[in-house]
Amino acid sequence: MDQDGPRRRAEYLYQELDGLQKLRRQVRHELIVACRKHPAAKWLQSVPFLGPLRTAVLIGRVKTPHRFRSKRQFWAYCGLALETRDSGEYCVVNGQVERRKRPVLMRGLNWNHNHELKNLFKGAATTASVGSGVFQQFYLGLLNKGMQPEMARLTLARKIAAITLKIWKKGEAFNPEHLKPQAA
Questions:
Q1: Distance between CA 48 and CA 131 in Å, rounded?
Q2: How confident is the model at residue 111 (pLDDT cuts 50, 70, 90)?
Q3: How much is the pTM?
Q4: Given pLDDT bands bounded at 50, 70 and 90, which one contains residue 178?
Q5: Strand partners, 85
Q6: Helix/strand/coil (H, E, C) string of the chain?
Q7: Please, which of 32, 49, 89, 148 could form a disulfide with 124 given CB 3.0 to 4.6 Å?
Q8: What are the boundaries of each domain within the chain?
Q9: Any idea which of 59-68, 85-94, 154-163, 166-175 has the lowest mean pLDDT?
Q10: Average pLDDT, stretch 5-26?
Q11: How many whole angstroms separate alpha carbon 178 and alpha carbon 134?
């Protein structure tokens, strides 16, 4: 059995990987340099855990924040919106149409979204939940209220996305006051 064939193929694959890693570093550098020229980059990078690379991806994917009327539309675009479905809200009982008593079922997160933005905000939330700062305090507060860690990270990702959209629309730097709960 010839052992040189698999070894040579592995060497070629490693050479290809080395070339791709070099190209990846160059592209990453150019992306960050191009991002610095955007006027919103400074405001967006003021959000904790949104560094230059995440900011560059965000600017490249969203282009303008004014596409979204509300944070809920932005969440749906980013794949952070909760999806509810109900196929039979009403039913016929004894010849009368009545509304069903069971609550609307949650089906999870929406599936038609921008995958890079979902990874961006969930990655920022995961990093923020273990890092120190105001976002970790927010996350720990959610855990103290009895929320499961996965749902707390999702809530944190949605909060980071909402703050990012607000900062980008208003053209202001991050302020920890943005984390305060809204009045109902």
A1: 10
A2: confident
A3: 0.79
A4: confident
A5: 105
A6: CCCHHHHHHHHHHHHHHHHHHHHHHHHHHHHHHHHHCCCCHHHHHCCCCCCHHHHHHHHHHHCCHHHCCCHHHHHHHHCCCEEEECCCCEEEECCEEEECCCCCEEEEECCCCCHHHHHHHHHHHHHHHHCCCHHHHHHHHHHHCCCCHHHHHHHHHHHHHHHHHHHHHHCCCCCHHHHCCCCC
A7: 49
A8: 1-37, 39-83+111-179
A9: 85-94
A10: 93
A11: 10
Two structure tokens written together for 103: 């609550």
Contacts with 130 (C-beta within 8 Å, 6 or more apart), sequence order: 136
Decide if 100 contacts 89 (C-beta within 8 A): yes
Whether 167 and 89 have beta carbons less than 8 Å apart is answered as: no
Pairing mode of beta strands 90-93, 105-109: unpaired
Question: Which residues are registered as beta bridge partners of 3?
Answer: none
- Quickly count: other Cβ atoms within 10 Å of residue 45's Cβ: 18
The pair of structure tokens assigned to 86 is 């109900």
Residues 6+ away with beta carbon under 8 Å from 174: 43, 46, 47, 48, 163, 167
